[in-house]
Each structure stands twice: as structure tokens, then as C-alpha cells.
Predict the structure.
Amino acid sequence: KAGVTQTPRYLIKTRGQQVTLSCSPISGHRSVSWYQQTPGQGLQFLFEYFSETQRNKGNFPGRFSGRQFSNSRSEMNVSTLELGDSALYLCASSLGVRERYEQYFGPGTRLTVT
Amino acid sequence: KNEVEQSPQNLTAQEGEFITINCSYSVGISALHWLQQHPGGGIVSLFMLSSGKKKHGRLIATINIQEKHSSLHITASHPRDSAVYICAVGRNTDKLIFGTGTRLQVFP
């Protein structure tokens, strides 16, 4: 089976712009979680989607949003980008809900905001 | 104080040595995860456990729920084990909380 794929792998944006990142889970997986990793804060949970519904969300401002499609693919959007949004954004998929099933991580999207 | 603490922060070892990385947490949890991150960012889930002990190849993970403590052991370490090891805890549907990671370097 193909692993979790994320596109794009690298992205450079300017402050104030918006960005959309995409995550394709492993075939058959219904849960997708998103994480942000920065040198200062480490890994932080953004949100989780299961069967097109957001199950929970981390402590991030409303500029961070996401959605999941019927084929389980997920997108996350960040509007009005700030310098502090520069980070590695990782998604992970699991067969079922995150707390019961092992997660498989994608390679990440490295976002640089200038 | 962080809800998830890992020790040590950095660890160097000679090939073949037995390695232990510790994780302590302060919240009630339903599961604990050990993750491995290589340079370049890719993360691999090593273990997900809620009690006892799990073994996969040269890796062993244990958890003591009463003491709120978990350990990751690597037997017969190898340079390819060099990576950052991250502990994360979750409680039911709550978000995962991550430790700051342990950077391991194994020299030949």
C-alpha cells in the first residue's frame, strides 16, 4: 500500500497570504490528524478528522482550519499568514479513531513565511 | 512544568550499547506513543501502548500506569538508530501531548 502523501513538500509564502496543504491518507484509513512542528514549540496537535467530521482541535487560532472529503483526503488552510506559522506541517492517518489505532505519518510540508 | 517530560534530552552512544530513554507524564492517559523522527522530518510510529510491554525487533517499550512513566529501550544500538525519539500521550479523544524529544546519536 502507498503511504501517506502530502503536497506540496515545500512552500514559501509571504505574510498575509493564505495557504492550503493537502494530505492523502493510506487507502482504507478514515482518520486524518494534522500537527505543527516548530523548533520552539515542538510538535503540537492541530486537529483530527474522522469520516468528514472534525473530532477535536488543538489550541490554535481560527486562522487554522481544515476539512476532510468523502474519500478521506484532507486539506488544511491557514489564512493571513504570520512569520510564526513557518513550520513543518505533518499529517497522519489511521484506520480508525486516533486513540485506538496506530498513526502513520506523512513526510510533511515545510512552510516558510517571509 | 510540561505535562510530558523526556530524559535525557541528548544521548550519545557507541554502536552495540543498550540505550534507555525515559518519559514521564502528569495527566491521566488512555495511550502512550513512541515516535522516531529522522533528519529531514519523517516520523515513524514505533509503539502505541496502554499497559505492560511491547517488543519490536531491537526495540522494547514499557509503561507503568501507576507511576505515570514509560521507557523505550534499544538493544544492540546501531548508527541507523540515530534519530530524535518523541513520547506522546493521549486521553481518549483529547489531543495528543508531545514531549520535547530525545536526540540520540550512535557512533560506529
